[in-house]
Amino acid sequence: MLLRRRRRRRSDPIPAGIIPKDFVVRHDLLRRLCLDPIMGLTPPRPWAPMTDAEWAALEPVLAGMGCGLHDRGRPLDCTPRERLDAIFRWATTKQRGGRAPWRLLPEEFGKPDTVSRSYRRWARQGLWARLLVELALKREALASLAHRLCCAFRRAIRVMGSLRSIVLARRLKLFSALPAPSQFLPDPDLSEIYREVHLAFADSMLKRLWFPPARLFRLLKAMHRIAGGRTRIPRWMEPA
């Protein structure tokens, strides 16, 4: 006796309202996902000591946050300007396509351990986040420092708090301050945008049973993957 092949059930049409027609345009997803991460990259520049004008732009910020100029405890063995130059020198140094260790810092900048302690202390005080905001507000005035500030910020992300720092850099549209390409990192703001679609889908499944098409499941899975980011990202993917 020949067994009859079970016919696969045809998918039901997608109910209206799950994916609004103006969803992509209303949230400007093309710009957010494709254009901004490319147009918002800062061109790399070779390291150079800060000029007097560049230091004059950064000095009030350091003074206001008490970083280097009025630190408590043991005083620095160099000026805050020299210490900042040493940090920028390390932050912009690459080794085999990835970030360089502190031990490669040239001797004229001081002991690597001492510089790294200042760097982490200033990160916990919020200096790098504040400088990134200043860069976004005064992009033309601080254009020459953009590459150095982005490098210093992204290397301090773990100290400052990964997710909070990633959200800040993305909202400021300074994508070179991210530790990897934007599409590989978690995006809570994008998750809130996609929440509308996922809630509409869940609500429709609760109201009546229907057989969603495979392409809808693939779309929802892709939305979840993009908003959640990758769990592991190779260091060579860090911007220049």
Describe this structure as you would to a colleague.
β1 and β2 (98-99) form a beta hairpin. It contains 11 helices and 2 strands. The model has no long low-confidence stretch (mean pLDDT 88). The termini are far apart. The chain has 240 residues and is mainly alpha-helical. It has helices at 23-26, 29-39, 52-65, 80-91, 112-124, 127-137, 146-154, 157-160, 162-171, 188-207, 214-228, and strands at 94-95, 98-99. It has 2 domains: 23-38 and 185-228, no CATH class; 44-69 and 78-179, no CATH class. α4 crosses α7 (146-154), α6 (127-137) packs antiparallel against α7 (146-154) and α10 (188-207) runs antiparallel to α11 (214-228). The protein has a two-stranded antiparallel ribbon with strand order 1-2.
